[in-house]
Amino acid sequence: MTVFPLANRTRLLTRPGLERDVAQVAQQIREGRFQRGLSLIAGLASLLSGFEAAEEHYRAGYGLQIMYTPVLISPLLLIAGLWGVFSRRAARTLLPIASILTLIDGLAGFYFHIRNIARRPGGWRLPIVNVVMGPPLFAPVLFGLSGYLGLVASLLRRADEPTAPLPGAAWLHLVPTGRELLSLEQDVREGRFQQQLAAVAAATALLSGVESAYLHYKNAFLSRMEWTPVLVSPLVVAAGLGTIRSRTVARTVLPLASLLAIADGTLGFYFHVRGMLRRPGGLRNGLYNLLYGPPPFAPLLLAAAGFMGLVASFLRRAG
User: Fold this and answer.
1) Helix, strand, coil: what percent of the chain each, to 5?
2) Which of 313, 225, 239 minimizes the C-alpha distance to 26?
3) How close are the terminal C-alpha atoms of the chain, in Å?
4) What is the distance between the alpha carbons of residues 8 and 17, in angstroms, rounded to a whole number?
5) pLDDT for 24-48, tens place per residue?
6) Hey, where are the domains in the chain?
7) Are 304 and 297 in contact (CB under 8 A)?
8) What are the DSSP calls for 139-185, one per residue?
9) What is the spatial distance between Cα 135 and Cα 114, in angstroms, rounded to a whole number?
10) Which residues contact 38 (CB under 8 A, 6 or more apart)?
């Protein structure tokens, strides 16, 4: 087993060594050379969102066969994401297939959640009651978001990839607007998609803010902490939209708002898990409390928006 010399290990823990590592990661992001890291994150995000879908659909008794699809697709993206960490070929072939399936299934789930709310008594004429008491409207978005991250990862380069251009993604040639997508692929491979990722981060933060507002309204905002995602998400939305027009906003406001979103989403995840464990029976009634307690992974949608915003702040602009 190789052991680092003491001097090297000490240097890694020093501030200059840490600053050098951070600068290296930032440079790799700016150049679009972070395929391994984003592939891993996409796979793990699929695992968490697939688990949440399994839990929510179990509560609904799997009344429709389509409710099984996220449970079946999420392991595919998990395997493809993990495989993509070690294999460039898997990242360029299997990962986009699993990611596109996840995106389609997330959009389909979003449609069926909207339809379910419309079919409840009063439909959209009673939005407060039916949105609060109906299926979690934006939960499928979190699942689809893992597919989006996987699709972006499949277009990126690896840190050790040669500078010589590689063949474009084969699946892009199958799309009718393939030429425009090939141009977008080139921007992604060079880390020049700051505006696009900032826009996705803003949209995700908006959906997360709306979802947290009605979920916490359902809980009557018993804790002051429940107000924080409602307040933080507009900051990410504003910073993401501002990034589309201003490079200065991208370098200053966006990373600060994104870090706030990541911190708030992580704290929300902790408080949701704590609230679940504090219910009668705690872990002894784990399945019951998981089904009828606070949704543990819902706050991670805001954290995901913050993560995308933070990555966007390091990227370059197209053109």
Assistant:
1) 80, 0, 20
2) 313
3) 47
4) 10
5) 888 888 888 889 999 999 999 999 8
6) 31-190, 193-319
7) no
8) HHHHHHHHHHHHHHHHHS--TT--SSPPPPPGGGGGSTTHHHHHHHH
9) 8
10) 149, 152, 153, 156
Rounded to an integer, what distance in angstroms lies between the CA atom of residue 154 and that of residue 145?
14
CB 191 within 8 A of CB 30: yes
Please, what are the averages of pLDDT over each run of 10 residues along the chain (319 residues)?
45 61 81 90 91 87 91 95 94 94 94 91 84 83 90 89 57 54 74 91 92 86 92 96 94 96 95 90 83 85 93 87
b or e along 277-301 (b: 16 or more beta carbons within 10 Å of the residue's beta carbon)? eeeeeeeeeeeebbeebbbbbbbbb
Six-digit token string for 183:
């141009």
> Cα 314 to chain center, whole Å?
17
- Name the token pair of 158: 């690896």
